[in-house]
Amino acid sequence: MNKYKEYWKDLGVTAEIAAFAPEGKLEEFHAILHVEPRDELFDGQLQRIYSAEERLTGLPDITGAAVILKRYFLSDATNQQPLMRQEAHCSVSVIQQPPLDGSKVAVWLYLQKGSRVANVNGVIVTEHNGYRHLWKMGMHEHKGDSAWQTESLLISYEEMLQNFNATLAGNCIRTWFYVRDVDTQYAGMVKARKENFAEQGLTEQTHYISSTGIGGLPADTRALVQLGTYAVTGFDPEQQRYLYAPTHLNPTYEYGVTFERGTVMEYGDRAHVFISGTASINNKGEVVHVGNIVKQTERMWENVGTLLEEGGTSFEDVMQIIVYLRDVCDYRTVKAMFDRKFPHTPHVITLAPVCRPTWLVEMECIAVKERHNDQFRDL
Questions:
Q1: What is the mean pLDDT of the chain?
Q2: How far apart are CA 104 and CA 73, in angstroms?
Q3: How buried is 24 (Cβ within 10 angstroms: 0-12 exposed, 13-18 middle, 19+ buried)?
Q4: How many CB atoms lie within 10 A of CB 206?
Q5: Torsion of CA 333, 339, 342, 344, to 10 degrees
Q6: Spatial contact of 186 and 256, defined as CB atoms under 8 Å apart
Q7: Residue 371 CB burial class (10 angstroms; 0-12, 13-18, ≥19)
Q8: Which of 55, 51, 67, 52 has its CA nearest to residue 113?
């Protein structure tokens, strides 16, 4: 794996890049772009981000790669999304989770080189070596409460999966639930998800899906929940396993929520490890270090590190990190901590309340590790 930064002075944009590019195999890239505010309006910052995206795809090692996913973190989604261009070649997520570096926009991009990419009725599908990867972001409803919207979104997603001979229980690997006013609306989302999952055969006796449920404002002011998803078809059940870290974390169903702490997808040449939103919690489900942002960050790292280790990986294999803070005033402290621990790993820190008021910080990440699994096909 190669991690590096590019800085385009004329654009005032820094690109943090992680590349997993084994010779002769499918190549993967994660990048997070940060723009200097320069006392500029949103449109100016956005145009510089767009220009940086073009330069990113023109870098020597990335040339020829297709953009699969873009997630834009905005400071005012309702007013800013209408100024953004429509894109059909990749799955785009736009959410109000302000970057805390003073800018109005940041973006995470995921790219692949070597796969076939198509837009199939709004789903971005990548195909290679018998696998199909299905990315669908930005789903939302505009009526009803958070429970109704969650149920409606999941039903729509399940119907969409049927078009690819896939199911929620059998093929969905990762979800993201962004909840408006998470302190009051999260409970409705949790209830509806739990009920829907039970109908789909997802219970504490079977398995759930790795997920992040976090505060975030969709651009549509009527939307209380926004859903993003990733699914895979063409794999054997033995290729997927779940991470628990029982020395550090408890099963999520013990406090009424229904998601996995992490998921590993094993391929012949690599493993993908998806770590769900993880905070400062112990194996009894209790918040640890209430009120102390430094100790909560350290315990969060400990929890994530234990999950990664269980998945046969480490922080060295992490290709991107998204950090969510409840209090903007904690930004400088947390940024300094992350810059020291992860100086080369692409990461972004946003303002997004965690689902429990006493959790001050949460993170999620994706890791990729080289494997030699003869029993499975390469990615």
A1: 97
A2: 8
A3: exposed
A4: 11
A5: 160
A6: no
A7: middle
A8: 67
Which two tokens mark 247?
A: 């020395």
Q: Which amino acid, one-letter code, is at 127?
A: E
3-state helix, strand, coil in the chain (%, to 5): 25, 35, 35
**What tens digit of pLDDT does each residue of 235-263 get?**
999 999 999 999 999 999 998 999 999 99
Q: Residue 368 carries which side chain, given as an amino acid letter?
A: V
CA angle at 160 for the pair 155 and 161, rounded to the nearest 5°: 100
Residues constituting the chain: 379
The alpha-carbon radius of gyration of the chain (Å, integer) is 19
- Residue extents of the structural domains in the chain: 1-114
Sign of torsion over alpha carbons 161, 164, 165, 166? negative
- DSSP assignments along 243-293, one per residue: E--TTT---GGGGT---BSEEEEE-SSEEEEEEEEE-SB-TTS-B-STT-H
DSSP E strand stretches across 21-88: 27-35, 66-74
* Max intra-chain CA distance, the chain: 55
d(CA 80, CA 42): 7
194-204: average pLDDT: 96
- Determine how β-strand 318-325 pairs with β-strand 361-370: antiparallel
Place of tokens 């320069």: 38
Amino acid letter at 109? L
Token match 């999941």: residue?
Answer: 154
HSE-up (13 A, CA, CB side) for residue 36: 9
Residue 330 is classified by DSSP as: G
Both structure tokens of 52: 């940086």
DSSP 247: T
Q: Whole-prediction pTM value? A: 0.97
Give the model's pLDDT for residue 124: 98
Q: How far apart are CA 350 and CA 327, in angstroms?
A: 10
pLDDT at position 271 is 98
Mean pLDDT computed over 317-333: 98
By CB neighbour count within 10 A (0-12 exposed, 13-18 middle, 19+ buried), where does 55 fall? Answer: middle
Give Cα separations from 308 to 276, 285, 342 (angstroms).
Answer: 11, 19, 15
CATH topology of domain 1-114: 60s Ribosomal Protein L30; Chain: A; (3.30.1330)
Reduce the DSSP state of residue 201 to 3 states and report it. Answer: coil
